[in-house]
Amino acid sequence: MRLVLTWLINAIALLAVPYLMHSVDVTSIGAALVAALVLGLVNTLIRPVLLLLTLPVTLVSLGLFIFIINGFMFWLVAQWVDGFHVDSFASAIGGALLYSVISWALSTLLLKKSDG
């Protein structure tokens, strides 16, 4: 159940990004749900490989290169999913940052940790 709630929170966060950044466009709730699912899969499967391959650059940039990787993942999903569009790579970096902050805030407010 928690996985479904996280997916819905991420879709809501994705729907909120175009209101704050006009260079990102999500045409429908369905597109947001699909994009959130694909973004979660890409971040789970591809992002760790990219982080490992770019570790030297990430260390030299004191971790700032991770913003580039997150923007690339956001841009990549926008290329794959119909109804989710990002104008440029710079917009993808900003959109990924906004998406992360909104998703984190909503998750913090709506999901409670179980006492384990």
UniProtKB/TrEMBL annotation:
Superkingdom, natural source: Bacteria
Keywords: Membrane, Transmembrane, Transmembrane helix
Keyword Transmembrane helix tagged: yes
Positions of transmembrane segments: 26-46, 53-77, 89-111
Protein's name in the database: Phage holin family protein
